[in-house]
Design brief:
Length: 193
Amino acid sequence: MYLLVVILCSTVLWAHCLHYTDVQPQQDFDLEQFSGEWYRVGMAYESPSFIKYKGRMLISRGFLVSSENGSANLSMWTMTGPKLCSPSFYEYEKTQVPGLFTYFSQRHKIMKDITIVETNYTEYGLVLKYKKMEKEYTQVALYGRSPTLRPEVVEKFRSYSLSLGFSAESIVTPTVLDPCPFPEPRNKTEAVA
């Protein structure tokens, strides 16, 4: 009986991990349509430090600019302390698959992938960061063209996150907009910090 349980658990875990690595970007993804202003209105992240402070998460605002070579730059400002706004700049390198990008995480010191799982371009984008599914690195984010999305879209984000194995406590959809000023978009020639 014990052996049967071990085999069953191993099979489930193997299938679970395989499922994540098979996540593909939206077919016919168009970076030009995806560029522009976005609000991060939801996040699923299993990191214990995130779960501990998720009640403090705010809706953050950013701007994505496509580059001539098919890569993208994302600029965001986030409140990191009382009246302290910190800029974040990300350079997402294109891959051979439209909608799949890579970047070097300065925070974690590893290469990560960014997959645009689903978007309708005018309302929302569902994004998976780091398909290897490691608690400290993997996130699902819901972006909106406005800070408020239809309940059906938020539920789609929750259901998708749960289907990938994120716990309900790791999913947050804040309601308060971060008061930081809107970031200046990074242009195509600037280096990313």
